[in-house]
C-alpha cells in the first residue's frame, strides 16, 4: 500500500552503510519531504531510492569542511560554522544566515553570492544544504561547478548523481517533471572555478534553468565575474566581513583547547593592521596556522601565505611537540618545492583550472618540474602535495587545490620571481577586461611585493585611457572621466506603478533604458529608487567596469572614492529631460553638491572607487621614486 511506502522500506541496504546521524537525519528528510512529494509518480520507488542515496551522500560530503588550521585537515561544519551576513546595498538588505534562509528565499527566488577569495562562499553553500535537510526544507541539488566536464551539462550531472548512470528513461522523465513542479533548490557553487572553455555554456544553462524551473530556488556562488551581472533574474549579494567578535569566536573554535588562540587574540588587540585579515574567514584560518607555526603576526598577504606554506612544510604541530616534522617522500628542499609550486600555480591559473583528474594532476606536476629545472621524482612529489605538505586535497576521484587562494599566491610569486622578460606582458594580459575580475586576488598579492610594477602595467594605463593622469582636474572631474569610461548613467521617472512594488517599476526602467539604446541582457542594470521623487537612477556597466572594480582592491591607496556621502534631499528631477534620459556626466556642474551626491550613488551602485587629484599626484611621485631606485640598482650592478 502507498501508505506504507517510505524511505525506511527502501533504504535497508543503504542504511547498513550509513551511520549515526546521517541515517536518522536523511531518513526523516526523505520520509517527510521526499516520499510524499513523489507519491503520484510512476517511478516513485526508483526516484525516492535515488534521492535517498543522493541525500545521504551530500549529507556526508557537507558534514566536514577542509582546513589546514589543524592536524587532520577537517572540522565538523556544524561545530565551527560562524553565522554569516549576506548584504546588498541597493536596495539595502542584510540577512543573517544562521539556519535555512526561508525569508531570504521568499524575497528572492534566485540568489547570486558574489565575493572575493576566502569569504566563505562554499562553506555557506554547504551550510544551507545541510539546513535544508535538517529543517525539512526543499530538496537540495548540490553542484560543485568545477566538477563539470566537456559535454556534460548541469542537468546531466544532477541526473547522474541522483538516479545513477543506469536510471530508466521513465524515472528520468518523472524526476525532471518533479523539478518543473518545484520543491527543489539548485545549489550551484563556484562559477569562477569552471573550466574557461565551458563557462559560456554553463552561464547560459544557469540562465535557462532559472527561467524553465520557475518554481524552484537557485543559489549561485562565484568570485566577482561580469557574467554574473548578466543573470538578470538573480539578486546579487555579498558576504559581510566578520566582526572582531566573530573572528575571535572562529579562532577559539579552531583551537581545540591548545591555547594558541588565546595568545593570538591577545596579540591582535594591539595591532590594528590585521583588522582586514580578521574580516575574512580564510585569512582568520591562515592567521591561526601561521601563528601556531611562528608566534609572529604577518601583516601582508604574501607574507601570510609564505608563513603558512612554511608551517605546512615543517608540519609544526604543538600537540606533538615542537620537533615533530613529517617525512617528505621526495626529500625536496623547501625552496625547491616553492619554485615548483610557483610554476604549477601559474600554469593551472592560466588554464583556469583548480580541480584535476589523477592523470591531469600527474601531467601538471611533471610539466612544472621540467619548467622549474628542479630535480625531483614526480610521483613522490605528488604524494607529498597530498599528505606531507597538503597544498592539494583529494576530492572523490579527483584532486584540487586546497583553496584557490593558494593558486593565486603561487601564481603571483611566479610573476614576481620567475617570469623575467615576459613579466609585463603577462600582467597586461591578466588585467585585460576579460580576465581582470578573475586575476584580482593574484594582482593584489603581486602589488604587495612590487606596487610600482603593478601600477606601471595596470593603474597608469587605465588612468591614461580615462585621460586623468594629470593634475589639472578637480576630484569631481576625475571621478566623472573615470566613471564615463566604464558606466552609463540613466534617470527614469516612474509612472503608473507603485514604488512599493519593485517588479512593476524595474520592468519600466528596463524598457526605458532599452529605448535609450542599451540592451539590459548584454549590460546588466543596477538601480536605486528615489522614492520621494518617484525617480530611479540606473547604471549600465561596460566591459571596463571589471578593471575598475579590481583596481579598488589592487591599489586602494589610489582609488579612494568620492568625498561625499549619500544624504538625500537634492532635486534629481532637475537633471531629467522628459520621462527618461541618459545623464551626460561631463556636462554636470562639478561644484554642485547634487553632482557629488550623484557620483557617490553611481560609485555605490557600480561597486567601484575612483582616484582623487591627490592620489594621482602621489602615484606619480611614487613612480618617479621607483624609477630612480631602479636606476641606482643598475649603477650598483655595473659597479659590482
Helix/strand structural class:
alpha/beta
The CA-CA distance between the termini, in Å, is: 92 Å
Give a short account of the largest sheet. 7 strands, mixed
Report low-confidence residues grouped into runs of 5 or more: 1-19, 316-324
3D shape: globular
Please count the helical segments.
28
The amount of beta strand, in percent, is 5-15%
Radius of gyration: 26 Å
Task: List how many beta strands DSSP finds.
Answer: 16
Order of strands in the sheet with most strands: 4-3-9-5-8-7-6
Whole-number mean pLDDT: 84
Helix content: 40-55%
Model description:
The chain has 640 residues and is of the alpha/beta class. It is built from 28 helices and 16 strands. The strands form four sheets. It has a seven-stranded mixed beta sheet with strand order 4-3-9-5-8-7-6, sandwiched between helices. It has a four-stranded antiparallel beta sheet with strand order 14-15-13-16, sandwiched between helices. The chain starts with 6 loop residues before the first helix and ends with a helix. Residues 1-19 and 316-324 have low confidence and may be disordered.
Amino acid at each position: 500500500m502507498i501508505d506504507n511506502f517510505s524511505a525506511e522500506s527502501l533504504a535497508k541496504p543503504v542504511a547498513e552503510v550509513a551511520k549515526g546521524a546521517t541515517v536518522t537525519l536523511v531518513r526523516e528528510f526523505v520520509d517527510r519531504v521526499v516520499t510524499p512529494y513523489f507519491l503520484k509518480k510512476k517511478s516513485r520507488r526508483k526516484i525516492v531510492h535515488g534521492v535517498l542515496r543522493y541525500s545521504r551522500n551530500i549529507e556526508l560530503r557537507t558534514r566536514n569542511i577542509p582546513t589546514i588550521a589543524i592536524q587532520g585537515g577537517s572540522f565538523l561544519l556544524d561545530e565551527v560554522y560562524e553565522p554569516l551576513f549576506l548584504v546588498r546595498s541597493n536596495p539595502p538588505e542584510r540577512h543573517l544566515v544562521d539556519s535555512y534562509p526561508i525569508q531570504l528565499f521568499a524575497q528572492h527566488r534566485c540568489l547570486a553570492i558574489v565575493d572575493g577569495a576566502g569569504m566563505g562562499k562554499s562553506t555557506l553553500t554547504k551550510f544551507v544544504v545541510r539546513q535544508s535537510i535538517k529543517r525539512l526544507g526543499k530538496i537540495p541539488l548540490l553542484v560543485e561547478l568545477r566538477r563539470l566536464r566537456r559535454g556534460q551539462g548541469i542537468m546531466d550531472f544532477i541526473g547522474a548523481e541522483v538516479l545513477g548512470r543506469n536510471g530508466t528513461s521513465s524515472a528520468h522523465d518523472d524526476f525532471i517533471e518533479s523539478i518543473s513542479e518545484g520543491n527543489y533548490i539548485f545549489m550551484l557553487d563556484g562559477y569562477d572555478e569552471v573550466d574557461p572553455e565551458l563557462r559560456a555554456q554553463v552561464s547560459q544553462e544557469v540562465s535557462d534553468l532559472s527561467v524553465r524551473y520557475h518554481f524552484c530556488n537557485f543559489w549561485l556562488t562565484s568570485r566577482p565575474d561580469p557574467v554574473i551581472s548578466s543573470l538578470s533574474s538573480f539578486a546579487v549579494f555579498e558576504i559581510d566581513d566578520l566582526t572582531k567578535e566573530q573572528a575571535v569566536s572562529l579562532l577559539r573554535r579552531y583551537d581545540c583547547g591548545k591555547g594558541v588562540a588565546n595568545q593570538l587574540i591577545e596579540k591582535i588587540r594591539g595591532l590594528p593592521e590585521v583588522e582586514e585579515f580578521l574580516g575574512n574567514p580564510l585569512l582568520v584560518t591562515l592567521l591561526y596556522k601561521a601563528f601556531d607555526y611562528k608566534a609572529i603576526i604577518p601583516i601582508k598577504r604574501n607574507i601570510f601565505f609564505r608563513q603558512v606554506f612554511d608551517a605546512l612544510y615543517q608540519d609544526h604541530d604543538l600537540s606533538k611537540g615542537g620537533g615533530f616534522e613529517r617525512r617528505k617522500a621526495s626529500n625536496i628542499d623547501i625552496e625547491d618545492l616553492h619554485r615548483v609550486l610557483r610554476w604549477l600555480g601559474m600554469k593551472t591559473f592560466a588554464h583556469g583550472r583548480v580541480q584535476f583528474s589523477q592523470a591531469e594532476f600527474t601531467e601538471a606536476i611533471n610539466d612544472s618540474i621540467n619548467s622549474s629545472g628542479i630535480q625531483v621524482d614526480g610521483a613522490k612529489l605528488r604524494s607529498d602535495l597530498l599528505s606531507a605538505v597538503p597544498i592539494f586535497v583529494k576530492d572523490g576521484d579527483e584532486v584540487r587545490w586546497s583553496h584557490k587562494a593558494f593558486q593565486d599566491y603561487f601564481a603571483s610569486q611566479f610573476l614576481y620571481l620567475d617570469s623575467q622578460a615576459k613579466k609585463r606582458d603577462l600582467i597586461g594580459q591578466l588585467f585585460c577586461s576579460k580576465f581582470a575580475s578573475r586575476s584580482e586576488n593574484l594582482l593584489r598579492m603581486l602589488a604587495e611585493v612590487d606596487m610600482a610594477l603593478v601600477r606601471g602595467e595596470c593603474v597608469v594605463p587605465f588612468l591614461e585611457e580615462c585621460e586623468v593622469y594629470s593634475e589639472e582636474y578637480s576630484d569631481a572631474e576625475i571621478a566623472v572621466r573615470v566613471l564615463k569610461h566604464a558606466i552609463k548613467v540613466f534617470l527614469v521617472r516612474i509612472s503608473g506603478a507603485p514604488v512599493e512594488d519593485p517588479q512593476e517599476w524595474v520592468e519600466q526602467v528596463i524598457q526605458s533604458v532599452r529605448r535609450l539604446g542599451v540592451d539590459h541582457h548584454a549590460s546588466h542594470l543596477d538601480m536605486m529608487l528615489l522614492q520621494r521623487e518617484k525617480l530611479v537612477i540606473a547604471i549600465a556597466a561596460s566591459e571596463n567596469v571589471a578593471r575598475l572594480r579590481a583596481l579598488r582592491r589592487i591599489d586602494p591607496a589610489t582609488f579612494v572614492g568620492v568625498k561625499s556621502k549619500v544624504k538625500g534631499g537634492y532635486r534629481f528631477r532637475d537633471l531629467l529631460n522628459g520621462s527618461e534620459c541618459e545623464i551626460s556626466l561631463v556636462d554636470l556642474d562639478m561644484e554642485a553638491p547634487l553632482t557629488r551626491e550623484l557620483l557617490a550613488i553611481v560609485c555605490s551602485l557600480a561597486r567601484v572607487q575612483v582616484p582623487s587629484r591627490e592620489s594621482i599626484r602621489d602615484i606619480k611621485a611614487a613612480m618617479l621614486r621607483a624609477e630612480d631606485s631602479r636606476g641606482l640598482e643598475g649603477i650598483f650592478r655595473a659597479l659590482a
